Amino acid sequence: MREKIIAGNWKCYKTLEEARNLVLEIMNGLKPDLDRTVVLCPPFPYLQMARELTLKSKVKIGAQNLWKEDWGAYTGEVSAPMLNSLKVDFVIIGHSERREYFKEDGALLNAKLKRALAWNLRPIFCLGEKLHDREEGITFKIVERQIEEGFEGISSEEASKVVIAYEPVWAIGTGRNATPEQAQEVHEFIRGKIGKLFGTVVSQSFPILYGGSVKPENIDSLMAMPDIDGALVGGASLKGQDFLRIIHYQRE
Ligand code: 13P
């Protein structure tokens, strides 16, 4: 069975104290012997705290971004070797908010993916279409281009360490999630594309997460789809009990 991953993207929320309380609430609420990977992605300033609190548990920690160079005069940036030295496990790359507000393009995201892999960080590579793309019927074309740009020059062995999060932009923070069938259709397409690029051994074990208004109410039906291997959760990951319910999704 493919690895199942539930990741919480906290975005730009929480004070240090609130962040600490949320980490503790989630750790205390986890059922023992979970057969799925749980990832918390707090803002940069809280990574060390979150890492220290979770070090002896199975909870993984992820950063929300990284810079494309290892070191240098890049005021305000955080690099892969820094995250590696904090023992961070995952890093989100190419979130639609980075693509949109910070104008991150395919070449930059490709460079970031390579830095993350070089420093043993598991990338959660985000992609997804905008509403007008879907309405124009070019969802697959957009997703295919994002994969081709992002994975340029990546080997099959490297690709096997990557996780993709399909996040349709129209579903993020809007309360309007993709239906399980809509998500499944794109996930299946993504798996097919990964198979063409890296072979079926990689594509069959490749985790593809869905993101966009994931809630306690819709996680079970999303996870019932054959190509949905987990979720990247925004708003609902900020509420301990909601995120715990999502982590402990029921198999339908
Ligand atoms: P919401 O769950 O708030 O829609 O956010 C999704 C997201 O962007 C996760 O990265």
Describe the structure.
The protein has helices spanning 16-29, 47-54, 80-85, 96-101, 106-118, 131-136, 139-150, 156-159, 180-198, 200-204, 219-223, 240-247; strands at residues 5-9, 37-41, 60-63, 90-93, 122-127, 163-166, 208-211, 230-233. The protein is globular and about 45 Å long. The model has no long low-confidence stretch (mean pLDDT 97). It has a single domain (5-247), classed as Aldolase class I (TIM Barrel, Alpha-Beta Barrel), CATH 3.20.20. It starts with a strand and ends in a 5-residue tail after the last helix. Helix content is 42%, strand content 14%. Helix 11 links the parallel strand 7 and strand 8 (230-233). The protein has 252 residues and is of the alpha/beta class. The chain has 12 helices and 8 strands. It has an 8-stranded parallel β-barrel, surrounded by 5 helices. The longest helix is centred in the last third of the chain and has 19 residues, at 180-198. Bound molecules: 1,3-dihydroxyacetonephosphate.
